């Protein structure tokens, strides 16, 4: 069962929080001169444990807040995983030209901070002579033209592991794997301890070192609670396979933008999907297989 | 009973505030340093952790390094508790309470270092058992929260009971204190082991992912904690009426020599494995000791730390130098420096340099981070000073009339 469907009536914990912490919060809020909303925020329970009405109320509040902040109507959905769907990703290394269009499409689609820049996709330039050698790779290549004759490119983002080390280490259950395999973060619950960033072998988790700077005109108003809604400073964020799109049957932005068709996406449980075809007909590998993270992100060489 | 507690609290407050000019200057100085740190922290809260030099590549650094070092200091109280209470060795039994006071101060500092490191200090209550959503049993940091709090509560209970009964001229309850003391021994080992597991359990970071990390943590902690205590004992001997026997100091120094030997041996074992097998994981150790591609910010610290530890080991190994107060104190300073660098800088940073995708981001702390750190150390010293100031006269009461306070 996904944590999404999890409902719980008012229990002992809520009562304890209500009575015990309200006093503390009231004092601190008075000191800080803060509003009722501040107290409400401070004491809010984990989103995934709330009932549907309370969830809707929070989503409405968030929509109002974001719409006000960015001066346009922002939608915050919490579309649950689809039944019988487990997403998988394929990346054809022989096609990737290292243009980084995926990087910036992702930044825009997922409302990543522009200043400082946060990139969920890192494209690593590899020397052809060396093969895949992370220690010798360079993410900051700036040639006049890509692809360069002596290089190939390895884009890396969240590998949506079946055995995610980041989820295991989180001390507050702010991150988990949903039924469709997407590893998500509740950015209203994350405390910003960055254990998950230590634990991730793929550098896929990113921290908001300050308030994300996103120009109002560039905001993507089509958002998901567990994905690309605007994040506050002090929390961790990551790729969610464009959860706001893919749970409605669309492709992730990086797949759509790729000019050479190096990026594949589909349902691993559907025998007729492109992903199943790829696993059947091509020879795939995963990054750092020795760590037993069992990624749903497969690399292959089609030609 | 309530009246007894009230008189104990007010009496303690009076003891804490009473003192000469130097004592008050010391308190004012520490408070000023603390405020200097708090103002830096406030900038961090309002502006975000961007005021530090931590980034996605090196996402834990100075704060977590200090936290790790101080967990070791806190654990070192058992170096006094074991000889004092398990072996009933009298010279150390008389001073064992200072180990507990140090443990309390160190844990307070640990908690502050975690608090300043998290991105959302307003949400730390999510870590509280029952109230929050502590991710047990899978999160090692979750376990660390539990054992650190348990260890703090144990030490607070022991110290409060001993001081409360002594204040009211009653004998302390052996049935209350003995089990707590015995429990504090595995708890001390526990806080350091669990903290080591926070690192050792991370397969993504081969520099940390080592089975001997926990034993190394314990060995180095059993040197660094007592190093602080030995210097404090000499200060207390001069500034208070407390008597600290030479044999106690020598015995602790001898135990430190064994711990340092173990620390160096385990270090050597790790170094052998890294260099002889010469896998791609060696790059972190190379970054630390020789630099890679011109990135060599940590190299002088790494060698400095090793030199400090080796020289200190030799000073503590030979009875002649560990019984000479000058060389003993030099050894303590060297151990403190050596282990502080080893835990604070040479563990966390090379573990994340290069990052998991091979990028080198060379981290050095900002002034803001140093200010916050200095503020936390000031808070720790303040707590320790006040606790000692309260404890010493209370514990000295039964040895005769109270000595007159120094005229200022």
Top CATH class of the largest domain in chain A: Alpha Beta
Order of helices and strands of chain A: HHHEEHEEHEEHEEEHHEHEE
Based on the coordinates given, report the CATH architecture of the largest domain in chain A: 2-Layer Sandwich
CATH superfamily of chain B: Formate dehydrogenase/DMSO reductase domain
Looking at how many chains there are and whether they match, the oligomeric state comes to heterodimer
Euclidean distance between termini CA atoms of chain A: 40 Å
| Tally of individual helices of chain A | 9
Globular, elongated, flat, extended or rod-shaped: what is the shape of chain B?
A: globular
Query: Can you count the beta strands of chain B?
Result: 0
Q: Roughly how much helix do the residues of chain A carry, as a percent range?
A: 25-40%
Average residue-wise pLDDT of chain B:
91
Residues in helices of chain B, as a percent range: over 70%
| Derived structural class of chain A | alpha+beta
Low-confidence stretches of chain B: 399-408
Q: Radius of gyration of chain A over alpha carbons? A: 21 Å
Shape of chain A: globular
Tally of structural domains of chain B = 1
How large a portion of the residues of chain A is in β-strands, by DSSP E? 5-15%
Level-2 CATH architecture of chain B = Up-down Bundle
């Amino acid at each position: 069962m996904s944590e999404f469907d999890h409902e719980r009536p008012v229990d002992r914990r809520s009562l304890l929080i209500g009575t015990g912490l309200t006093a503390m919060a009231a004092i601190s809020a008075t000191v800080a001169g803060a509003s009722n909303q501040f107290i409400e925020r401070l004491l809010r329970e984990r989103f995934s444990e709330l009932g549907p009405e309370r969830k809707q109320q929070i989503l409405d509040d968030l929509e109002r807040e974001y719409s006000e902040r960015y001066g346009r109507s922002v939608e915050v959905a919490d579309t649950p995983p689809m039944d019988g769907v487990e997403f998988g990703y394929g990346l054809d290394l022989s096609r990737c030209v290292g243009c980084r269009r995926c990087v910036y499409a992702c930044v825009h689609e997922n409302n990543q901070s522009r200043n400082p820049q946060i990139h969920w996709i890192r494209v690593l330039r590899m020397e052809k002579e060396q093969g895949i050698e992370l220690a010798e790779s360079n993410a900051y290549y700036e040639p006049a033209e890509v692809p360069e004759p002596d290089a190939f490119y390895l884009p890396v983002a969240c590998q949506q592991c079946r055995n995610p080390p980041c989820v295991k280490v989180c001390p507050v259950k702010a991150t988990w794997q949903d039924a469709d395999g997407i590893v998500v973060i509740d950015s209203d619950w994350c405390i910003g301890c960055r254990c998950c960033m230590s634990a991730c072998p793929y550098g896929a988790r990113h921290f908001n070192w300050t308030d994300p700077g996103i120009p109002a005109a560039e905001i993507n108003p089509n958002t998901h609670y567990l994905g690309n809604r605007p994040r506050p400073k002090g929390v961790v964020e990551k790729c969610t396979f464009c959860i706001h799109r893919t749970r409605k049957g669309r492709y992730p932005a990086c797949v759509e933008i790729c000019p050479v068709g190096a990026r594949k996406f589909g349902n691993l449980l559907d025998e007729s999907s492109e992903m199943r075809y790829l696993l059947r007909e091509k020879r795939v590998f995963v990054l750092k297989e020795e760590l037993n993270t069992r990624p749903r992100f497969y690399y292959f060489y089609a030609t | 009973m309530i009246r007894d507690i009230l008189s104990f609290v007010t009496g303690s407050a009076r003891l804490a505030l009473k003192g000469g000019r130097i004592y008050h200057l010391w308190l004012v100085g520490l408070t000023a340093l603390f405020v200097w740190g708090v103002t830096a922290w406030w900038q961090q809260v309002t502006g975000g952790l961007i005021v530090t030099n931590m980034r996605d590549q090196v996402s834990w650094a100075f704060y977590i390094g200090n936290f790790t070092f101080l967990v070791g200091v806190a654990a070192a109280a058992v170096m006094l508790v074991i000889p004092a209470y398990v072996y009933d060795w009298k010279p150390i039994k008389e001073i064992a309470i200072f180990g507990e006071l140090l443990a309390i101060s160190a844990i307070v500092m640990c908690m502050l270092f975690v608090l300043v490191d998290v991105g959302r200090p307003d949400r730390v209550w999510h870590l509280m058992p029952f109230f929050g959503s502590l991710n047990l049993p899978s999160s090692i940091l979750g376990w660390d929260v539990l054992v650190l709090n348990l260890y703090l509560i144990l030490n607070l209970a022991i110290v409060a009971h001993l001081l409360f009964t002594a204040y009211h001229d009653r004998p302390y309850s052996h049935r209350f204190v003995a089990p707590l003391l015995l429990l504090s021994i595995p708890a001390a080992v526990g806080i350091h082991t669990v903290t080591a597991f926070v690192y050792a359990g991370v397969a993504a970071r081969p520099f940390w992912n080592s089975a001997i990390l926990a034993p190394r943590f314990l060995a180095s902690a059993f040197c660094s904690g007592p190093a602080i205590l030995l210097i404090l004992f000499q200060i207390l001997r001069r500034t208070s009426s407390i008597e600290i026997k030479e044999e106690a100091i020598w015995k602790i120094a001898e135990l430190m020599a064994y711990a340092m030997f173990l620390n160096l041996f385990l270090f050597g074992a790790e170094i052998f494995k890294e260099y002889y097998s010469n896998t791609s994981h060696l790059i972190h150790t190379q970054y630390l000791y020789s630099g890679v591609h011109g990135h060599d910010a940590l190299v002088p610290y790494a060698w400095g730390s090793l030199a400090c530890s080796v020289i200190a080991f030799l000073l503590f190994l030979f009875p002649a130098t560990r019984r000479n107060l000058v060389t003993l104190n030099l050894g303590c300073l060297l151990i403190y420096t050596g282990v502080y660098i080893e835990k604070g800088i040479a563990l966390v940073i090379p573990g994340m340099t290069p990052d998991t995708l091979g990028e080198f981001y060379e981290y050095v702390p900002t002034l803001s981070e140093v200010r916050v750190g200095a503020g936390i150390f000031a808070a720790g010293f303040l707590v320790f000073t006040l606790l000692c100031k309260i404890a010493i006269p209370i514990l000295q009461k039964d040895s005769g009339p109270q000595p007159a306070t120094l005229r200022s």
